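User: I'm writing a tutorial on reading structure tokens. Could you give me a worked example: one chain, its sequence, then its tokens, then a sentence or two explaining what the tokens reveal?
Assistant: Sure. Here is the example chain.
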Amino acid sequence: MNKRFLLTTVIAVAVLGAIFGYKALQIRQAKAAMAARKPVPAAVTTALAARQDWAMTLGSVGTLQSYQGITVRSEIEGRIVRIAFESGARVQAGDVLVEMDTAAETAQLRSYEATARLAELNLQRARELRQTNANTQADLDASEAAFLQAQANIEATKATLAKKRIVAPFTGRIGIRQVNIGQFLNKGDALATLEAVDPIYADFALPQQNIAQLATGLSVKVTVDAFPDRQFDGKIEAIDPRITDTTRNLRLRATLANKDEVLHPGMFARIDVVLPGDTAVIVLPTTAVVYSPYGDSVYVVGQKDGAPVAEQRWVKVGPKRGDLISILEGLKEGEQVVTIGQSKLRPGSALKVNNTVVPASSPAPKPVES
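And here are its predicted structure tokens:
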């Protein structure tokens, strides 16, 4: 019995040993095969880092403001009898916009003029009588006061009549009218907006660390979404002397020519302040830069055992210009940089460079016409 049990145990151990040995041999062979395999090179496109002289800029987003802009309002109560403008029309300074009913004031003016005429005659008589001591000095003073009072009443009535004839205070374009003929206006009621937009202002802000680079007279380049293929040139007119408490930014105002009045107050605009002098920078397509919370980097094509491999390089990026971006630090002229395919790369990844089809990169790209 013991011999049979021992024989069975020996056979079982031999079978299990053979199985485990075979598996171990398979694992060793698989590891050897994996070690012998080489990773498939990642297909990428590349571009050479080129050196160019760029006029450096400071970019911001701002809002366009009218050179002069108001809401025309009534200074006095009255009923509208005439509207002398069309919505959206251009008006000159002094043009009549609205006239109100002046019948009561006109009649009152004639009454005051008659009173003033009588007061003037009484004053002349009082002066003549005073020369002969036929009246008192108090009588003469009363006559002079009555005459002055009558003159003041005339001036006040004329001022009221003038306020009932509302005119444009400056040349500009009138907005959509908000009143109608026959409407009764209260004091402060709005008639329409009036905007002078040539030139036009662009208000924007920049971080306080840029103060040393800024000055009035610097050129700015402005673009708006409504006209993506146009660039509007202007100059910084004013710099606010106070830094904003909330954002610690410096507020600036630029003036732009707007002869054709295509720019409107309230538009958002991208503003680039052009700094004096040119700076030599390394230029790459914008697609070459890999952005991450730890910093910006590019992949440079290096060599390992005679084959191209990826080398990660941390860089400091500068301003953009269309499809191009400037590299201020971390890259040398002439180095070959990966522009497409970085998502598949790690430091040391094998590369296969294929530049048969390379997207165009332009500092001033334009949309493709269909």
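What the tokens reveal: The chain has a mean pLDDT of 87. The chain is about 25% helix and 40% strand.
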